[in-house]
Amino acid sequence: MTNNLFSSISHHQPSIEAESDVHVIKSRLEWGEPAFTILDVRDRSIYNEGHIMGAMSMPIDGLADRAGSSLDHKRDIYVYGMNEEQTTQAAQTLRSAGFFNVSKIKGGFGAWKAIGGATEGIIEALTLPGADDYNVVSRIQNHLEHQQK
């Protein structure tokens, strides 16, 4: 019998919360944490106007089928829609389809933009950067202040 030094290390990440603050997601992105997906369940035309950078468009109509055929059921999934009701419906749809780690993004796209999260899309490309977008120190201070709340 061999003594494996790594046998006590768990390869399973803890489950994510049912609802997540945008600061948690932004922190995961900034630290380069793997194995999570952000889903935007709004209509494709609205997604094209602006969305969280890297978010996948999966409109709520047909969400279970599209997610089921393209995403790992054990993957961490953060979801947002047009409003709280659509976001809640999407999270329930994904959980019913067998996804284990689904979290609603509190405040959705608006909350993401409010903390200076990276965005992309037609309208977002035309929007001038905010005052602290190029000041790394200000962005870190702003992030730390919100993490402590």
From TrEMBL:
SUPFAM superfamilies per UniProt: Rhodanese/Cell cycle control phosphatase
Ranges for domain Rhodanese: 32-121
PANTHER family: FAD-DEPENDENT OXIDOREDUCTASE, PYRIDINE NUCLEOTIDE-DISULPHIDE OXIDOREDUCTASE
Official protein name in the record: Rhodanese domain-containing protein
